[in-house]
Amino acid sequence: MSSIQILPEDLINKIAAGEVVERPASVVKELVENAIDAGADEVFVTVNDGGKTLISVLDNGKGMNAEDARLAVQRHATSKIKSEEDLDHIVNLGFRGEALAAISSVSRFELTTCQDEEVGGFQYQITGGKRPKEVGIGFPRGTKIVVADLFFNQPARLKFLKAVKTEYHHIYDLVIRQALAHPEIQFKLTVDKKLTLNLPKGQDFLARIEECYGSEIANDLVYIEHEEGYLQFEGYFSHPAQSRSSRRWQQIFLNDRSVKNQTLSQAVYEGYKTLLMKNMHPMFFLKISMSPTEVDVNVHPAKTEVRLRNPTLIHTIFAEGLQRSLKEESRKRFFGDVVHDPAEEPSPVVREGLLRPSGTLTPKSTFVEVNDQIGFRTEHPKTQRSFDTRPEAPAPNAPPRSPQTHTPGDTAFSFNIGQPVKATESTHLSSSPAEFSAIGQLAEKYILAEGPGRLVLVDQHSAHERIRFEEIRTDFYNNQLGTHSLMIPVILALPPQDGLLLEQHQDDFGKLGFQIEPFGGNDYAVKEVPSILKDKDIAQVIRDVLDEMSQFGRTGKMEIFFNEVFEKMACHSAIRAGQTLSLPEMQSLLNQLSQLDLQIHCPHGRPVLVDISLSELDKRFKRIV
Known about the structure:
It is elongated, with a radius of gyration of 31 Å. It has three domains: 5-203, Histidine kinase-like ATPase, C-terminal domain (Heat Shock Protein 90, 2-Layer Sandwich); 215-336, Ribosomal Protein S5, domain 2 (2-Layer Sandwich), CATH 3.30.230.10; 380-625, Ribosomal Protein S8, Chain: A, domain 1 (2-Layer Sandwich), CATH 3.30.1370. The chain is an alpha+beta fold and 625 residues long. The chain is built from 17 helices and 26 strands. The longest helix has 25 residues, at 311-335. Helices cover 30% and strands 23% of the residues. The strands form seven sheets. An eight-stranded mixed β-sheet has the order 7-6-5-8-3-2-9-10, covered by helices on one side. A five-stranded mixed β-sheet has the order 11-12-15-13-14, sandwiched between helices.
Protein backbone atom coordinates (compact mmCIF):
# COMPACT_ATOMS: atom_id res chain seq x y z
CA MET A 1 0.00 0.00 0.00
CA SER A 2 1.30 3.44 -0.92
CA SER A 3 2.21 5.88 1.87
CA ILE A 4 2.64 8.72 -0.64
CA GLN A 5 -0.27 10.74 -1.99
CA ILE A 6 -0.76 13.59 -4.44
CA LEU A 7 -1.92 16.64 -2.49
CA PRO A 8 -5.30 18.14 -3.39
CA GLU A 9 -5.31 21.55 -5.05
CA ASP A 10 -6.76 23.43 -2.07
CA LEU A 11 -3.91 22.20 0.13
CA ILE A 12 -1.29 22.88 -2.53
CA ASN A 13 -2.42 26.51 -2.58
CA LYS A 14 -1.62 26.80 1.13
CA ILE A 15 1.98 25.66 0.71
CA ALA A 16 4.65 28.24 -0.04
CA ALA A 17 5.66 27.76 -3.64
CA GLY A 18 8.84 28.79 -5.38
CA GLU A 19 11.94 27.58 -7.15
CA VAL A 20 13.37 24.53 -5.36
CA VAL A 21 16.43 23.98 -7.57
CA GLU A 22 18.58 27.09 -7.57
CA ARG A 23 22.05 25.55 -7.63
CA PRO A 24 23.74 22.19 -6.88
CA ALA A 25 23.72 22.87 -3.14
CA SER A 26 19.91 23.16 -3.14
CA VAL A 27 19.71 19.72 -4.76
CA VAL A 28 22.00 18.28 -2.08
CA LYS A 29 19.88 19.91 0.61
CA GLU A 30 16.61 18.36 -0.59
CA LEU A 31 18.12 14.91 -1.02
CA VAL A 32 19.90 14.91 2.34
CA GLU A 33 16.74 16.09 4.10
CA ASN A 34 14.77 13.26 2.51
CA ALA A 35 17.42 10.80 3.72
CA ILE A 36 17.18 12.13 7.28
CA ASP A 37 13.38 12.00 7.20
CA ALA A 38 13.67 8.36 6.06
CA GLY A 39 15.44 7.52 9.34
CA ALA A 40 18.93 7.04 7.92
CA ASP A 41 21.94 7.09 10.23
CA GLU A 42 24.39 6.98 7.31
CA VAL A 43 24.28 9.61 4.56
CA PHE A 44 26.98 9.59 1.86
CA VAL A 45 27.18 12.53 -0.55
CA THR A 46 29.30 12.46 -3.71
CA VAL A 47 29.78 15.40 -6.09
CA ASN A 48 31.86 16.08 -9.17
CA ASP A 49 32.64 19.48 -10.70
CA GLY A 50 30.95 21.32 -7.86
CA GLY A 51 27.78 19.28 -8.43
CA LYS A 52 27.36 20.41 -12.01
CA THR A 53 28.04 17.02 -13.60
CA LEU A 54 27.25 14.66 -10.72
CA ILE A 55 25.45 14.66 -7.38
CA SER A 56 24.84 11.36 -5.60
CA VAL A 57 23.22 10.85 -2.18
CA LEU A 58 23.13 7.35 -0.68
CA ASP A 59 21.36 6.55 2.61
CA ASN A 60 20.43 3.51 4.67
CA GLY A 61 16.93 4.75 5.53
CA LYS A 62 13.69 2.82 5.22
CA GLY A 63 13.55 3.08 1.42
CA MET A 64 10.44 2.93 -0.78
CA ASN A 65 8.44 0.27 -2.55
CA ALA A 66 7.88 0.46 -6.32
CA GLU A 67 4.52 2.20 -6.04
CA ASP A 68 5.87 4.93 -3.73
CA ALA A 69 8.93 5.41 -5.93
CA ARG A 70 6.73 6.09 -8.98
CA LEU A 71 4.64 8.63 -7.06
CA ALA A 72 7.64 10.30 -5.38
CA VAL A 73 8.82 11.95 -8.60
CA GLN A 74 5.46 13.54 -9.32
CA ARG A 75 4.67 17.11 -8.28
CA HIS A 76 3.09 17.64 -4.85
CA ALA A 77 3.51 13.99 -3.93
CA THR A 78 4.33 13.61 -0.23
CA SER A 79 3.92 11.29 2.72
CA LYS A 80 4.68 14.07 5.23
CA ILE A 81 1.33 15.90 5.28
CA LYS A 82 -2.19 14.76 4.52
CA SER A 83 -4.40 17.62 5.70
CA GLU A 84 -4.30 21.36 6.34
CA GLU A 85 -3.99 20.72 10.09
CA ASP A 86 -0.68 18.96 9.49
CA LEU A 87 0.86 22.27 8.40
CA ASP A 88 0.69 23.41 12.04
CA HIS A 89 2.52 20.32 13.35
CA ILE A 90 5.39 19.85 10.92
CA VAL A 91 8.26 17.84 12.42
CA ASN A 92 9.87 16.62 9.18
CA LEU A 93 12.51 18.49 7.23
CA GLY A 94 10.75 18.05 3.89
CA PHE A 95 7.02 18.19 3.27
CA ARG A 96 6.22 20.09 0.06
CA GLY A 97 6.44 17.21 -2.40
CA GLU A 98 8.14 19.36 -5.03
CA ALA A 99 11.83 18.44 -4.76
CA LEU A 100 12.18 15.22 -6.74
CA ALA A 101 9.83 16.39 -9.50
CA ALA A 102 11.72 19.67 -9.87
CA ILE A 103 15.16 18.02 -9.78
CA SER A 104 14.28 15.30 -12.30
CA SER A 105 12.94 17.89 -14.74
CA VAL A 106 16.33 19.65 -15.07
CA SER A 107 18.78 16.72 -14.94
CA ARG A 108 19.46 13.11 -15.83
CA PHE A 109 17.84 11.62 -12.79
CA GLU A 110 18.13 8.11 -11.33
CA LEU A 111 16.33 6.84 -8.24
CA THR A 112 17.29 3.45 -6.79
CA THR A 113 15.52 2.30 -3.65
CA CYS A 114 14.64 -0.78 -1.62
CA GLN A 115 12.23 -1.15 1.27
CA ASP A 116 12.45 -4.94 1.68
CA GLU A 117 15.58 -6.79 0.54
CA GLU A 118 13.63 -10.03 0.13
CA VAL A 119 11.35 -8.32 -2.40
CA GLY A 120 14.22 -6.53 -4.09
CA GLY A 121 14.96 -3.01 -5.18
CA PHE A 122 13.59 -0.72 -7.84
CA GLN A 123 15.28 1.80 -10.14
CA TYR A 124 13.53 4.71 -11.81
CA GLN A 125 15.26 6.83 -14.49
CA ILE A 126 14.08 10.17 -15.90
CA THR A 127 15.81 12.44 -18.39
CA GLY A 128 14.73 16.07 -18.24
CA GLY A 129 11.36 15.08 -16.81
CA LYS A 130 10.55 12.84 -19.80
CA ARG A 131 10.59 9.17 -20.84
CA PRO A 132 10.72 7.48 -17.43
CA LYS A 133 12.30 4.05 -17.32
CA GLU A 134 11.86 1.56 -14.51
CA VAL A 135 13.54 -1.72 -13.74
CA GLY A 136 13.85 -4.17 -10.88
CA ILE A 137 17.30 -4.35 -9.30
CA GLY A 138 19.13 -5.91 -6.38
CA PHE A 139 19.84 -3.24 -3.80
CA PRO A 140 20.28 -3.06 -0.01
CA ARG A 141 17.64 -1.38 2.13
CA GLY A 142 17.80 2.37 1.61
CA THR A 143 17.82 4.86 -1.24
CA LYS A 144 20.36 6.23 -3.71
CA ILE A 145 19.61 9.19 -5.94
CA VAL A 146 21.96 10.27 -8.72
CA VAL A 147 21.56 13.68 -10.38
CA ALA A 148 23.77 14.06 -13.47
CA ASP A 149 24.27 17.03 -15.79
CA LEU A 150 22.23 19.52 -13.79
CA PHE A 151 20.48 22.10 -16.03
CA PHE A 152 21.63 20.30 -19.19
CA ASN A 153 18.28 21.20 -20.80
CA GLN A 154 18.29 24.79 -19.49
CA PRO A 155 21.51 26.40 -20.77
CA ALA A 156 20.51 29.86 -19.52
CA ARG A 157 20.39 28.62 -15.93
CA LEU A 158 23.53 26.54 -16.39
CA LYS A 159 25.35 29.66 -17.57
CA PHE A 160 24.65 31.49 -14.33
CA LEU A 161 26.12 28.85 -12.03
CA LYS A 162 29.25 30.04 -10.28
CA ALA A 163 32.75 28.62 -10.47
CA VAL A 164 33.26 25.00 -9.43
CA LYS A 165 35.03 26.05 -6.22
CA THR A 166 32.17 28.38 -5.26
CA GLU A 167 29.51 25.75 -5.85
CA TYR A 168 31.56 23.23 -3.89
CA HIS A 169 31.79 25.57 -0.89
CA HIS A 170 28.01 25.98 -0.89
CA ILE A 171 27.64 22.19 -0.83
CA TYR A 172 30.26 21.80 1.89
CA ASP A 173 28.54 24.40 4.10
CA LEU A 174 25.20 22.68 3.55
CA VAL A 175 26.55 19.28 4.60
CA ILE A 176 28.24 20.84 7.63
CA ARG A 177 24.95 22.41 8.76
CA GLN A 178 23.08 19.13 8.41
CA ALA A 179 25.86 17.29 10.23
CA LEU A 180 25.75 19.76 13.13
CA ALA A 181 21.97 19.45 13.37
CA HIS A 182 22.23 15.63 13.47
CA PRO A 183 25.42 14.49 15.24
CA GLU A 184 23.87 11.04 15.62
CA ILE A 185 24.16 10.48 11.84
CA GLN A 186 27.31 9.60 9.92
CA PHE A 187 28.00 11.96 7.03
CA LYS A 188 30.53 11.44 4.25
CA LEU A 189 31.30 13.94 1.53
CA THR A 190 33.35 12.84 -1.46
CA VAL A 191 34.44 15.52 -3.92
CA ASP A 192 35.94 14.57 -7.29
CA LYS A 193 36.69 11.04 -6.00
CA LYS A 194 38.41 12.38 -2.88
CA LEU A 195 36.93 11.89 0.61
CA THR A 196 36.89 15.37 2.13
CA LEU A 197 34.57 14.86 5.10
CA ASN A 198 33.90 11.78 7.21
CA LEU A 199 31.95 12.45 10.40
CA PRO A 200 31.22 9.35 12.50
CA LYS A 201 27.76 8.68 13.89
CA GLY A 202 26.89 9.00 17.55
CA GLN A 203 28.97 12.08 18.36
CA ASP A 204 27.94 14.63 20.94
CA PHE A 205 27.31 18.19 19.80
CA LEU A 206 30.68 19.61 20.90
CA ALA A 207 32.61 16.76 19.29
CA ARG A 208 30.73 17.37 16.05
CA ILE A 209 31.54 21.11 16.24
CA GLU A 210 35.21 20.27 16.74
CA GLU A 211 35.17 17.85 13.80
CA CYS A 212 33.62 20.50 11.56
CA TYR A 213 35.47 23.64 12.68
CA GLY A 214 38.57 22.51 14.55
CA SER A 215 39.72 22.42 18.15
CA GLU A 216 40.79 26.08 18.20
CA ILE A 217 37.18 27.21 17.85
CA ALA A 218 35.74 24.42 20.01
CA ASN A 219 38.08 25.33 22.87
CA ASP A 220 36.79 28.91 22.88
CA LEU A 221 33.18 27.85 23.49
CA VAL A 222 31.18 27.49 26.68
CA TYR A 223 28.07 25.34 27.10
CA ILE A 224 24.84 27.13 28.05
CA GLU A 225 21.35 25.74 28.47
CA HIS A 226 18.04 27.26 29.54
CA GLU A 227 14.45 26.08 29.76
CA GLU A 228 11.30 28.09 30.30
CA GLY A 229 7.76 27.24 29.32
CA TYR A 230 7.65 25.69 25.87
CA LEU A 231 11.11 27.07 24.96
CA GLN A 232 14.28 25.13 25.63
CA PHE A 233 17.69 25.91 24.21
CA GLU A 234 21.20 24.63 24.58
CA GLY A 235 24.38 25.27 22.72
CA TYR A 236 27.93 26.47 22.71
CA PHE A 237 28.76 30.15 22.79
CA SER A 238 32.04 32.01 22.63
CA HIS A 239 33.36 33.99 25.54
CA PRO A 240 33.01 37.68 24.68
CA ALA A 241 36.81 37.96 24.59
CA GLN A 242 36.85 35.36 21.80
CA SER A 243 34.51 37.24 19.46
CA ARG A 244 35.30 37.35 15.73
CA SER A 245 35.17 39.96 12.99
CA SER A 246 32.74 37.92 10.85
CA ARG A 247 29.52 35.92 11.34
CA ARG A 248 30.90 32.74 9.78
CA TRP A 249 30.72 30.74 13.00
CA GLN A 250 27.04 31.17 13.77
CA GLN A 251 24.51 28.37 13.42
CA ILE A 252 20.92 28.15 14.63
CA PHE A 253 18.99 24.87 14.67
CA LEU A 254 15.29 24.96 15.51
CA ASN A 255 13.81 21.53 16.16
CA ASP A 256 16.85 20.03 14.38
CA ARG A 257 16.32 22.24 11.33
CA SER A 258 19.02 24.68 10.24
CA VAL A 259 17.20 28.01 10.03
CA LYS A 260 17.54 31.71 9.60
CA ASN A 261 15.43 33.92 11.83
CA GLN A 262 16.02 37.56 12.65
CA THR A 263 14.29 37.32 16.03
CA LEU A 264 16.61 34.56 17.22
CA SER A 265 19.74 36.19 15.82
CA GLN A 266 18.88 39.51 17.44
CA ALA A 267 18.17 37.74 20.72
CA VAL A 268 21.71 36.31 20.73
CA TYR A 269 23.19 39.75 20.18
CA GLU A 270 20.91 41.14 22.87
CA GLY A 271 22.31 38.51 25.22
CA TYR A 272 25.82 39.76 24.40
CA LYS A 273 24.91 43.44 24.77
CA THR A 274 27.58 45.55 26.50
CA LEU A 275 29.98 42.60 26.04
CA LEU A 276 31.09 42.90 22.42
CA MET A 277 33.38 45.47 20.92
CA LYS A 278 32.03 47.40 17.96
CA ASN A 279 31.96 45.44 14.71
CA MET A 280 32.74 42.16 16.48
CA HIS A 281 30.51 39.10 16.48
CA PRO A 282 30.03 36.12 18.78
CA MET A 283 30.46 32.51 17.76
CA PHE A 284 27.51 30.33 18.63
CA PHE A 285 26.07 26.93 17.76
CA LEU A 286 22.54 26.98 19.08
CA LYS A 287 19.92 24.25 19.32
CA ILE A 288 16.38 25.33 20.16
CA SER A 289 13.43 23.08 20.93
CA MET A 290 9.85 24.25 21.04
CA SER A 291 6.41 23.01 20.16
CA PRO A 292 5.89 22.75 16.37
CA THR A 293 2.67 24.69 16.85
CA GLU A 294 4.76 27.74 17.77
CA VAL A 295 6.80 27.67 14.56
CA ASP A 296 5.68 28.24 10.99
CA VAL A 297 8.13 26.58 8.60
CA ASN A 298 5.83 27.06 5.60
CA VAL A 299 7.11 30.51 4.67
CA HIS A 300 9.87 29.80 2.15
CA PRO A 301 10.38 27.10 -0.51
CA ALA A 302 13.89 26.33 0.75
CA LYS A 303 12.55 25.89 4.31
CA THR A 304 15.51 27.81 5.76
CA GLU A 305 13.45 30.73 7.04
CA VAL A 306 10.86 30.25 9.75
CA ARG A 307 8.29 32.47 11.42
CA LEU A 308 7.70 32.41 15.17
CA ARG A 309 4.16 32.82 16.42
CA ASN A 310 5.22 34.82 19.49
CA PRO A 311 8.54 36.44 18.52
CA THR A 312 8.58 39.16 21.19
CA LEU A 313 8.13 36.71 24.04
CA ILE A 314 10.71 34.27 22.68
CA HIS A 315 13.20 37.08 22.06
CA THR A 316 12.87 38.26 25.65
CA ILE A 317 13.14 34.80 27.21
CA PHE A 318 16.09 33.87 25.05
CA ALA A 319 18.07 37.10 25.45
CA GLU A 320 17.69 37.21 29.23
CA GLY A 321 18.48 33.53 29.70
CA LEU A 322 21.60 33.83 27.55
CA GLN A 323 22.82 37.03 29.18
CA ARG A 324 22.44 35.65 32.68
CA SER A 325 24.35 32.50 31.72
CA LEU A 326 27.13 34.50 30.06
CA LYS A 327 27.44 36.61 33.21
CA GLU A 328 27.71 33.55 35.42
CA GLU A 329 30.26 31.88 33.16
CA SER A 330 32.37 35.04 32.97
CA ARG A 331 32.24 35.41 36.73
CA LYS A 332 33.22 31.79 37.34
CA ARG A 333 36.16 32.21 35.02
CA PHE A 334 37.77 34.86 37.22
CA PHE A 335 36.06 34.98 40.61
CA GLY A 336 34.63 31.53 41.28
CA ASP A 337 31.00 30.47 41.61
CA VAL A 338 28.14 32.90 42.20
CA VAL A 339 26.33 32.41 45.49
CA HIS A 340 22.54 32.25 45.22
CA ASP A 341 20.09 32.42 48.07
CA PRO A 342 16.76 31.00 46.77
CA ALA A 343 14.93 32.34 49.83
CA GLU A 344 15.72 35.89 48.78
CA GLU A 345 14.78 35.49 45.11
CA PRO A 346 11.92 37.82 44.16
CA SER A 347 8.72 36.16 43.02
CA PRO A 348 8.46 35.94 39.23
CA VAL A 349 5.68 37.68 37.37
CA VAL A 350 3.65 35.03 35.55
CA ARG A 351 2.99 35.95 31.93
CA GLU A 352 0.60 34.57 29.41
CA GLY A 353 1.98 32.39 26.64
CA LEU A 354 4.53 30.46 28.70
CA LEU A 355 2.37 27.47 29.56
CA ARG A 356 3.55 24.06 28.53
CA PRO A 357 1.03 21.81 26.81
CA SER A 358 0.39 20.22 30.20
CA GLY A 359 -0.45 23.65 31.66
CA THR A 360 2.55 23.89 33.98
CA LEU A 361 4.79 26.90 34.19
CA THR A 362 8.52 26.51 34.64
CA PRO A 363 10.09 29.95 34.79
CA LYS A 364 13.80 30.13 35.50
CA SER A 365 14.18 33.89 35.14
CA THR A 366 13.11 36.93 37.12
CA PHE A 367 10.69 39.29 35.42
CA VAL A 368 10.14 42.98 36.08
CA GLU A 369 8.14 45.70 34.39
CA VAL A 370 10.35 48.10 32.41
CA ASN A 371 9.08 51.10 30.41
CA ASP A 372 5.53 49.72 30.25
CA GLN A 373 6.83 46.56 28.60
CA ILE A 374 7.53 43.19 30.14
CA GLY A 375 11.30 42.77 30.28
CA PHE A 376 13.90 40.71 32.08
CA ARG A 377 16.38 42.01 34.56
CA THR A 378 18.20 40.52 37.50
CA GLU A 379 17.35 42.48 40.64
CA HIS A 380 20.39 43.49 42.70
CA PRO A 381 19.98 45.69 45.77
CA LYS A 382 22.51 48.49 45.69
CA THR A 383 25.97 47.63 46.93
CA GLN A 384 28.00 50.27 48.70
CA ARG A 385 29.85 52.17 45.97
CA SER A 386 29.77 55.78 47.11
CA PHE A 387 33.01 57.73 47.03
CA ASP A 388 34.44 60.07 49.62
CA THR A 389 37.67 61.94 50.25
CA ARG A 390 38.48 60.67 53.74
CA PRO A 391 42.14 59.68 54.15
CA GLU A 392 42.73 56.03 54.82
CA ALA A 393 45.62 54.24 56.42
CA PRO A 394 47.82 52.34 53.97
CA ALA A 395 47.46 48.60 53.79
CA PRO A 396 49.84 46.56 55.96
CA ASN A 397 53.27 46.11 54.38
CA ALA A 398 52.22 48.33 51.49
CA PRO A 399 55.12 50.03 49.71
CA PRO A 400 55.27 53.81 50.01
CA ARG A 401 53.33 55.63 47.35
CA SER A 402 53.81 59.00 45.82
CA PRO A 403 51.10 61.57 46.62
CA GLN A 404 47.92 61.01 44.63
CA THR A 405 47.76 63.13 41.51
CA HIS A 406 45.10 63.69 38.91
CA THR A 407 45.17 64.63 35.30
CA PRO A 408 43.60 67.96 34.33
CA GLY A 409 39.83 67.75 34.20
CA ASP A 410 39.57 64.79 36.58
CA THR A 411 38.15 65.17 40.07
CA ALA A 412 39.50 63.64 43.24
CA PHE A 413 37.99 60.40 44.34
CA SER A 414 38.53 57.46 46.66
CA PHE A 415 36.76 54.21 47.28
CA ASN A 416 35.09 52.83 50.39
CA ILE A 417 38.39 51.56 51.69
CA GLY A 418 38.19 49.14 54.57
CA GLN A 419 34.38 48.86 54.43
CA PRO A 420 33.52 45.33 53.25
CA VAL A 421 30.27 44.78 51.41
CA LYS A 422 27.70 43.13 53.65
CA ALA A 423 26.02 39.91 52.62
CA THR A 424 22.59 41.53 52.92
CA GLU A 425 23.48 44.07 50.29
CA SER A 426 23.32 41.55 47.44
CA THR A 427 21.15 38.49 47.07
CA HIS A 428 23.25 37.01 44.28
CA LEU A 429 26.87 37.73 45.14
CA SER A 430 29.36 36.37 47.62
CA SER A 431 30.22 38.66 50.54
CA SER A 432 33.86 37.58 50.57
CA PRO A 433 36.50 40.03 49.32
CA ALA A 434 37.99 39.69 45.86
CA GLU A 435 40.30 36.78 45.20
CA PHE A 436 42.84 39.25 43.85
CA SER A 437 45.28 41.25 45.97
CA ALA A 438 46.51 44.50 44.49
CA ILE A 439 50.28 44.63 43.97
CA GLY A 440 50.79 47.92 42.19
CA GLN A 441 50.04 50.11 39.19
CA LEU A 442 51.60 50.05 35.75
CA ALA A 443 51.85 53.20 33.60
CA GLU A 444 49.00 54.73 35.65
CA LYS A 445 46.61 52.63 33.54
CA TYR A 446 46.74 49.05 34.73
CA ILE A 447 46.34 47.54 38.18
CA LEU A 448 48.61 44.58 38.87
CA ALA A 449 47.07 41.99 41.17
CA GLU A 450 47.91 38.54 42.46
CA GLY A 451 45.30 35.80 42.19
CA PRO A 452 45.33 32.09 42.96
CA GLY A 453 48.14 30.79 40.79
CA ARG A 454 48.13 33.74 38.39
CA LEU A 455 48.99 37.36 37.72
CA VAL A 456 46.05 39.58 36.83
CA LEU A 457 46.18 42.92 35.01
CA VAL A 458 43.11 45.15 35.32
CA ASP A 459 42.37 48.15 33.10
CA GLN A 460 41.42 50.68 35.76
CA HIS A 461 39.23 52.81 33.47
CA SER A 462 37.38 49.80 31.99
CA ALA A 463 36.88 48.28 35.45
CA HIS A 464 35.51 51.48 36.96
CA GLU A 465 33.41 52.06 33.85
CA ARG A 466 31.75 48.64 34.30
CA ILE A 467 31.11 49.39 38.00
CA ARG A 468 29.59 52.76 37.13
CA PHE A 469 27.49 51.29 34.32
CA GLU A 470 25.92 48.64 36.57
CA GLU A 471 25.33 51.22 39.29
CA ILE A 472 23.63 53.67 36.93
CA ARG A 473 21.50 51.00 35.29
CA THR A 474 20.39 49.47 38.61
CA ASP A 475 19.59 52.87 40.13
CA PHE A 476 17.69 53.94 37.02
CA TYR A 477 15.40 50.91 36.93
CA ASN A 478 14.88 51.13 40.71
CA ASN A 479 14.01 54.85 40.42
CA GLN A 480 16.99 55.66 42.65
CA LEU A 481 19.12 57.62 40.23
CA GLY A 482 20.05 60.59 42.39
CA THR A 483 20.15 64.14 41.04
CA HIS A 484 22.27 67.19 41.80
CA SER A 485 21.04 70.78 41.49
CA LEU A 486 23.53 73.17 39.95
CA MET A 487 24.01 76.45 41.81
CA ILE A 488 24.88 78.08 38.50
CA PRO A 489 23.06 76.58 35.50
CA VAL A 490 25.15 75.42 32.59
CA ILE A 491 24.18 77.29 29.43
CA LEU A 492 24.25 74.97 26.44
CA ALA A 493 24.19 76.22 22.83
CA LEU A 494 22.84 73.62 20.42
CA PRO A 495 22.27 73.54 16.68
CA PRO A 496 18.56 73.75 15.76
CA GLN A 497 18.17 70.05 14.98
CA ASP A 498 19.68 69.04 18.33
CA GLY A 499 17.53 71.59 20.14
CA LEU A 500 14.41 70.12 18.56
CA LEU A 501 15.56 66.62 19.51
CA LEU A 502 16.12 67.71 23.09
CA GLU A 503 12.66 69.24 23.38
CA GLN A 504 11.06 66.13 21.89
CA HIS A 505 12.77 63.97 24.53
CA GLN A 506 12.33 66.08 27.64
CA ASP A 507 10.67 63.16 29.45
CA ASP A 508 13.58 60.84 28.67
CA PHE A 509 16.08 63.42 29.91
CA GLY A 510 13.99 63.78 33.03
CA LYS A 511 14.11 60.02 33.66
CA LEU A 512 17.88 60.18 33.38
CA GLY A 513 18.09 62.93 36.00
CA PHE A 514 18.49 66.04 33.82
CA GLN A 515 16.44 69.21 34.17
CA ILE A 516 16.92 71.31 31.05
CA GLU A 517 14.91 74.39 30.13
CA PRO A 518 14.87 76.69 27.08
CA PHE A 519 16.98 79.83 27.64
CA GLY A 520 16.16 81.72 24.46
CA GLY A 521 17.08 81.09 20.86
CA ASN A 522 19.13 77.93 20.54
CA ASP A 523 20.39 78.12 24.14
CA TYR A 524 19.29 75.84 26.96
CA ALA A 525 19.88 76.03 30.71
CA VAL A 526 20.89 72.83 32.49
CA LYS A 527 19.72 73.17 36.10
CA GLU A 528 19.89 69.61 37.40
CA VAL A 529 22.03 66.61 36.48
CA PRO A 530 22.48 63.02 37.67
CA SER A 531 24.55 63.01 40.85
CA ILE A 532 27.13 60.77 39.26
CA LEU A 533 27.90 63.53 36.70
CA LYS A 534 27.91 66.54 39.01
CA ASP A 535 31.61 67.32 38.49
CA LYS A 536 31.85 66.33 34.83
CA ASP A 537 31.66 68.14 31.51
CA ILE A 538 27.86 68.36 31.41
CA ALA A 539 27.72 69.99 27.98
CA GLN A 540 29.71 67.17 26.39
CA VAL A 541 27.63 64.49 28.13
CA ILE A 542 24.39 66.00 26.80
CA ARG A 543 25.81 66.27 23.29
CA ASP A 544 26.77 62.57 23.43
CA VAL A 545 23.29 61.69 24.67
CA LEU A 546 21.72 63.65 21.82
CA ASP A 547 23.91 61.75 19.37
CA GLU A 548 22.52 58.51 20.78
CA MET A 549 18.97 59.87 20.61
CA SER A 550 19.36 60.68 16.94
CA GLN A 551 20.29 57.03 16.31
CA PHE A 552 17.55 55.79 18.61
CA GLY A 553 14.98 57.49 16.42
CA ARG A 554 15.80 54.91 13.76
CA THR A 555 15.94 51.86 16.03
CA GLY A 556 12.93 52.51 18.23
CA LYS A 557 14.08 50.31 21.16
CA MET A 558 14.08 52.15 24.47
CA GLU A 559 16.16 49.62 26.37
CA ILE A 560 18.91 49.73 23.74
CA PHE A 561 18.81 53.51 23.80
CA PHE A 562 19.07 53.78 27.58
CA ASN A 563 21.92 51.26 27.69
CA GLU A 564 23.80 53.41 25.19
CA VAL A 565 23.19 56.47 27.36
CA PHE A 566 24.29 54.60 30.49
CA GLU A 567 27.51 53.73 28.67
CA LYS A 568 28.17 57.40 27.97
CA MET A 569 27.41 58.41 31.55
CA ALA A 570 29.59 55.60 32.91
CA CYS A 571 32.47 56.54 30.64
CA HIS A 572 32.34 60.20 31.62
CA SER A 573 32.15 59.44 35.36
CA ALA A 574 34.82 56.72 35.53
CA ILE A 575 38.42 57.23 36.55
CA ARG A 576 40.79 57.74 33.66
CA ALA A 577 43.98 56.25 32.40
CA GLY A 578 46.79 58.41 33.74
CA GLN A 579 45.39 58.73 37.27
CA THR A 580 47.59 57.51 40.08
CA LEU A 581 45.84 55.23 42.56
CA SER A 582 46.89 54.29 46.06
CA LEU A 583 47.20 50.61 46.88
CA PRO A 584 44.04 50.66 49.07
CA GLU A 585 42.14 52.35 46.24
CA MET A 586 43.27 49.64 43.83
CA GLN A 587 42.17 46.95 46.26
CA SER A 588 38.82 48.65 46.78
CA LEU A 589 38.28 48.74 43.01
CA LEU A 590 39.00 44.99 42.80
CA ASN A 591 36.64 44.28 45.70
CA GLN A 592 33.82 46.24 44.10
CA LEU A 593 34.47 44.67 40.73
CA SER A 594 34.23 41.18 42.22
CA GLN A 595 30.73 41.97 43.55
CA LEU A 596 29.28 42.44 40.07
CA ASP A 597 27.57 39.71 38.09
CA LEU A 598 29.56 40.80 35.06
CA GLN A 599 33.02 42.26 35.36
CA ILE A 600 35.08 40.80 32.54
CA HIS A 601 34.23 43.46 29.96
CA CYS A 602 33.46 47.14 30.03
CA PRO A 603 30.12 48.33 28.58
CA HIS A 604 31.81 48.91 25.21
CA GLY A 605 32.98 45.29 25.09
CA ARG A 606 36.67 45.93 25.82
CA PRO A 607 38.26 43.46 28.24
CA VAL A 608 38.62 44.53 31.87
CA LEU A 609 40.89 41.70 32.99
CA VAL A 610 43.83 39.83 31.51
CA ASP A 611 45.43 36.99 33.44
CA ILE A 612 48.67 35.05 33.10
CA SER A 613 48.97 31.73 34.89
CA LEU A 614 51.88 31.07 37.23
CA SER A 615 52.79 28.03 35.16
CA GLU A 616 53.10 30.25 32.07
CA LEU A 617 55.41 32.60 33.97
CA ASP A 618 57.47 29.63 35.17
CA LYS A 619 57.84 28.51 31.56
CA ARG A 620 58.99 31.94 30.46
CA PHE A 621 61.56 32.07 33.23
CA LYS A 622 62.70 28.53 32.38
CA ARG A 623 61.74 27.22 35.82
CA ILE A 624 59.90 24.41 34.07
CA VAL A 625 60.46 23.03 30.59
